Amino acid sequence: MKKTKKKYGRYVALSVALSLLVGTIGVAQESTKLSDPEVAHVAVVANQIDIDYATIATKKSKNADILKFAQTMANDHEAVIKQAAELAKKLGVTPKDNAVSKQLLEDAKKKQKELNGYSRAAFDQAYIDNEVAYHKAVIGAVENLLIPETDNGELKALLENVVPALKAHLAHAEMVQKELTSKK
Fold it and tell me: What predicted TM-score, i.e. pTM, was given to this entire model?
């Protein structure tokens, strides 16, 4: 149970942080502070977006490393969506749409179109480059924006505990990226 809670915390934070990428960090900083219900909604949206990116990868790629990475992302984020709903229920939080989640969805549609437009040969590099950039931004967003703005102590603790997992995801993405680059 404790291990599941810890894993859940890492993924909730990952999803929240991911949602602040793709041009939305500025929106969050310029607007009023995100409430916990808004953070919860952003978390669900961000998880679904990364699942969608992984789905594109599983359809376009034939590279075993890319497919493994994409499957890991899909599995982790599907579990988080389920667990995020459970946490929101436990905390009595109803996720609330907001400027960050709206911008995230808008940006994700553009990125999905872009990823779908790559040839199979060019896709793998574009996908893993996106994942590396995404995770770098996530780490910064969690450490510098989300943790300081979160009011709920339980959510804040989860965000603080997720940073090592985010760094591990980044390292995995960078390893795949390096392997792809060295094969060119």
Answer: 0.78
Q: Which long-range contacts (CB under 8 A, 24 or more apart) does 145-149 make?
A: 145/20, 145/25, 145/28, 145/29, 146/13, 146/16, 146/17, 146/20, 146/39, 149/28, 149/33, 149/34, 149/39
Torsion of CA 121, 122, 124, 130, to 10 degrees: -170
pLDDT tens string 34-93: 887 787 777 778 778 889 999 999 999 999 999 999 999 898 778 777 777 777 788 887
* Burial (CB count <10 Å: 0-12, 13-18, 19+), residue 115: middle
Encode pLDDT of 91-144 as tens digits: 887 888 888 889 888 998 999 999 999 998 799 999 999 989 987 877 777 788
pLDDT for res 155: 74
CA dist list (Å): 90 to 86, 149, 154, 155, 158: 6, 20, 11, 12, 14
Q: Where are the beta strands (DSSP E) in 19-169?
A: none
Residue 15 pLDDT greater than 50, yes or no: no
How many CA atoms, within 13 angstroms, populate the side-chain half-sphere of residue 178? 6
Structure tokens at 164: 């090592």
Amino acid present at 132: V
Residues contacting residue 69 through CB under 8 Å, at least 6 positions apart: 57, 128, 131, 172, 173, 176
